[in-house]
Amino acid sequence: MEKILVNLNKNTYPIYFGNSIIKNLKQLLEKHGLSQNIFFIIDKNLEKYWGKRLNQELFYKNKKKFTYILSPGENSKNYLEVNKIYSSLLENNFGRDTLIVACGGGVSGDLAGFVASTFMRGLKLVHIPTSLLAMVDSSIGGKTGINFQKNKNLIGTFYQPDFVLIDTAFLTTLPKSEILSGMGEIIKYGFLSDQAFFSYLDQNFNHLIDCDLKYINYAIFKSVLIKASVVSDDEKEEGLRQILNLGHTFAHAFEKELNFKIKHGEAVAAGIICAVILSYNLNLLPKNLMMKMLTLASKIKLPKNLAEINLENVLLHMLHDKKNRNGKIKFVLLKGIGEIIIGAEASKKEVISALSKGISAFY
User: Fold this and answer.
1) Which residues carry out catalysis?
2) pLDDT by residue (tens digit) across 210-228?
3) Half-sphere exposure at residue 16, Cβ-oriented, CA atoms within 13 angstroms
4) Contact at 8 Å (CB) between 250 and 318?
5) What is the average pLDDT across 135-146?
């Protein structure tokens, strides 16, 4: 079992990483002084395969435990669902001595984190991410959020967990579509990192989507190291952490326009393609490097509903992105692998061109 620190002074916490390490959960809870009353939030799909095992790992005599089963998908990330969880906490007499354990993908983690950060002004929190995307991205860094009026994560907090446990054994029960979605975020780290990791992802892509543990474990570990390092330098996205939004300004607009009928990692992959093309159009990126980047990003097969998306609507959604400043869309763009530009701007014409060429490149 490996340990990676997210170094945030008083909010510092570890990420435990390995295969079949869920058996260490109770020991880790005790090590961190978290053997208390547990409110367990688990994704409904995950509960079918892992619910019994996880409940056993969270059993304590003389302690209270309640399992809240969450419907999967972005449509659960709303204030109505938050109210249901608050009500369940109250009805079952959970107080300040409660540990929230979030188990599932990004939706479970974002929602559980938001509840933990707000109920009784803050409860203890542990993340057990079980989707590839949550392992490499959403479970790390303390972002919580719910959607509002179809705007992604518009309401949220920064709230760090006590620890994160990443067990790659969970990947064995994931459908291939979820692995491909997670690869959207992993590819992002390839663009943000260096030539060596970029090449590793490019050369081993088929092994990665086949979930060959020899390859996927390294890709996850490397991605977690990158995110932990960035978050350690910039906890609340005031500077460096903005690089993690590569492709996301486009991605969130795609998700909203398609009413979230696209996986987040798919939207990120599409968004990265558009960001690469926009970087080239703005003379930031040479053509040979643009083609190299597009070759990797395009390996993720994207859903057909993107092909007929309304570009003007997408642009309107981008104008309401929470990362905008002074009414202007802000982009994370590229000058090269590991060479990132934060806060870039582009004209409407340039954005529409990147969207149009990007969608053509998807198919």
Assistant:
1) 121, 143, 185, 227, 237, 241, 245, 248, 252, 264
2) 999 889 999 999 999 999 9
3) 22
4) yes
5) 96
